[in-house]
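1st attempt posting a full record on here, be nice pls
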Amino acid sequence: MSFHPIIFSGLKNLTGKNYVERVVIKAIKNNIAIFSLHTALDNSWNGVNAMICNKLNLTNRRVLIPKKNTIKKLTTYVPEKHFQNLLSELFKAGAGTIGNYSNCSFSMDGTGSFLGNKESNPIIGSKGELRFEKETLLNVTLPAHKKSDVLESLFKHHPYEEIAYELTTLENNNQHIGMGMIGELETSNSEIEFLKFLKQTMNTSCIRHSKLLEKPIKKVAVLGGSGSFAIPNAIKERADIFITADCKYHDFFKTEDQMLLADIGHYESEQFTKELLVAYLNKKITIFAVLLSQINTNPITYF
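the predicted structure (as tokens):
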């Protein structure tokens, strides 16, 4: 398992002409599956940016750029006597969560009607009978990635042969999914003090930074890897410093003296992610030994 994927463009053949092909050939020969979690961990609440926050001891954390269109709402109609069981099963499947809350739902009682044809097999009423049934309208929120699990639970536990339901996407931003994080230091530091702390903590030989502003550092924004696109977001959130990597020359002008921009290096910003992966695997797979590679794959060295 790795954080960074080794394949960034399609492979049309395997001749061993470059390091990517040689690694893939070696993995195939030794029956090794390569599993990379890059983009998912970039957006995870407990991913790359959380590790940076942990190292810097940041508190009051929140996502810098919350991801949109990741919260959905399920609406369905269920007979009153089946309502509580269905709701419980939907919760078990992952429905009912939004932000810091779980088991969220809305319900309203009413009357539904249906008339089954000769091919129908109604669980309530009879074929050819116009039926009026006391039903409950049920709304539950759900994370987009739980859609399949929640619908599977709906189809399994809803009593009707034909289930009327709809899924809509909410406008709410997801507080726990998105790019970057912003948090606070317990106490303010001068720019020089914080840069020294940052350099030592992130084990980097060089920090490229914008002009010192002679302002204390308290609110810190971070985004591991190439994160210059988030400079406007960090400014909007009134960060005192934005820590990221791969900034180009003109990116340092974009701060417009509103905050300090610190480029600590791509590898350096993501180096602790492997600790997260090992901890997770040790917790989830207790019958296998998980080894943490000590090999430094950073292609950049500093003179």
